[in-house]
Inverse folding.
């Protein structure tokens, strides 16, 4: 089973709380936070670390005692617990963490208007056709961010990241059956996609490898 946790990182604007939570994380995560220049970026990165710590606690582990390895395509993995897979993402005021016993990728994006040129540049023709099948720009933008988060989550679950061009695979959304398929030539595996709508004005997607159950709802983490 794959579970996804989320939190509003604005609570970390409190400097005392920020420092308190930062000290509870691993040197690896602390360094990632320290390298960021802007306060909001630091809050998002720390929030992702807090969520990972919370998710690992379900397995009887803590993030601060975890060691990481960097995979072939630059994705961090747990060095001594290869049976646990995770993915982190953040945008705007939120961070998310997905975790499970099969490879998983996720993405969250704050929906902003005026970004349709991204689709024209990076999306496959079928994706563009689905995006522009609705007339209002607001609806087109919503669809653009839905496709974007699903593509990003697929890139993460494969471990390839941006080394795989966004136009080399296609997200197919069947509105009638509510099924989402990924057409690709990366490997022979089937990938399962899940979208979440718990956070207003944000798109969230989680992608899993093989026949993996994905939790129906995300789990909020507050006051952790």
């Amino acid at each position: 089973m794959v579970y996804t946790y989320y939190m509003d990182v604005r609570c970390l604007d409190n400097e005392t709380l920020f420092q308190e939570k930062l000290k509870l994380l691993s040197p690896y995560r602390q360094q990632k936070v320290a390298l960021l220049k802007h306060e909001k970026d630091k809050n998002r990165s720390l929030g992702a670390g807090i969520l990972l710590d919370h998710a690992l606690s379900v397995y009887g582990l803590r993030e601060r005692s975890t060691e990481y390895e960097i995979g072939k395509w630059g994705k961090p993995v747990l060095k001594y617990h290869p049976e646990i897979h995770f993915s982190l993402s953040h945008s705007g005021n939120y961070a998310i963490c997905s975790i499970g016993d099969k490879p998983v990728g996720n993405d969250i994006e704050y929906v902003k208007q005026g970004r349709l040129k991204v689709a024209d540049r990076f999306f496959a023709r079928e994706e563009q056709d689905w995006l522009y099948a609705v007339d209002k720009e607001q609806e087109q933008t919503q669809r653009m961010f839905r496709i974007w988060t699903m593509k990003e989550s697929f890139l993460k679950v494969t471990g390839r990241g941006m080394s795989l061009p966004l136009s080399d695979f296609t997200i197919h959304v069947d509105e009638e059956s509510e099924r989402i398929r990924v057409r690709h030539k990366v490997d022979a595996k089937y990938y399962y996609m899940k979208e979440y709508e718990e956070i207003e004005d944000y798109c969230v997607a989680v992608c899993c490898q093989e026949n993996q159950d994905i939790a129906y709802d995300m789990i909020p983490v507050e006051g952790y």
Remarks:
- Helices lie at 15-22, 27-34, 39-57, 116-122, 125-131, 137-158.
- The chain has a mean pLDDT of 91.
- The chain has one domain: 3-220.
- The domain at 3-220 is CATH 3.90.470.20 (Ribosomal Protein L22; Chain A).
